[in-house]
Specification:
With 204 residues, the protein is mostly beta strands. The protein is 13% helix and 34% strand. The strands form 4 sheets. A 5-stranded antiparallel sheet has the order 4-5-6-7-8, with no helix packed on it. It has a 3-stranded mixed sheet with strand order 1-2-3, with no helix packed on it. It has a two-stranded antiparallel sheet with strand order 9-10. It starts with a strand and ends in an 8-residue tail after the last helix.
Length: 204
């Protein structure tokens, strides 16, 4: 048995699984909201995940309901159920003035991932606007650029590139890479951002 975690919007472009002696399970991770796992069938293609209740195991008579998935009125994926937070965290976050996970009165949380609401199965078409995913990390590109700008190390440009395994990767360019990397480390920047300047140019 093998598992594959990845950006949900890339599932439709995933190549078929050709290993006959092992099964693979795709794990669609919707940021901090929740995840959905689906094992591929004999043909090796990603399993169809219908809107509605998601049992576990995925057989019609699954033991438990792991999640419920719907398309929101604005065409994004919304989830609720045991795999999804049921209240803002930490308690009182909704009164803090800071960003927090919003739970609707019906228990659904909008993941921000765009989907096709006109088809019966889940087809994710894009990540939340401005959000990039690198392995288990999610970042707002705007916040990363602001951190780079605050270093005062001159003009710098961040570029987001697709990555078959991690979802995305960062590349960056600046006139003084060493000073930029040193300043970012001093400010406690994530190592993924620091190392982006090691590529030297966005197309490296």
């Amino acid at each position: 048995m093998s598992s594959r975690c990845g950006a949900p919007e890339r599932l439709t472009r995933a190549p078929p699984w050709r290993e006959p002696n092992a099964c693979v399970t795709d794990i669609l991770v919707f940021g901090e909201t929740g995840l959905v796992a689906a094992r591929r069938g004999p043909g090796g293609k990603p399993a169809v995940i219908p809107f509605g209740l998601v049992p576990a195991p995925r057989a019609p008579k699954g033991i438990i309901i792991a999640a419920e998935i719907i398309a929101s009125p604005i065409g994004t994926v919304a989830m609720r159920g045991p795999m999804v937070p049921s209240a803002p965290f930490p308690p009182g976050a909704e009164r803090s003035g800071l960003p927090y996970l919003k739970v609707s009165a019906s228990g659904f949380i909008d993941t921000g991932y765009a989907c096709r609401p006109d088809v019966p199965a889940l087809v994710v078409t894009g990540p939340p606007p401005g959000m990039i995913t690198m392995g288990g990390y999610r970042f707002l590109l705007e916040e990363l650029q602001e951190m780079v700008d605050r270093t005062g190390c001159g003009d710098a440009r961040l570029t987001v590139l697709p990555d078959a395994l991690a979802g995305h990767r960062l590349a960056a360019s600046t006139s003084d890479r060493e000073s930029m990397q040193a300043s970012l480390r001093l400010h406690g920047a994530n190592p993924l951002l620091v190392e982006a300047f090691g590529f030297g140019r966005p197309d490296a």
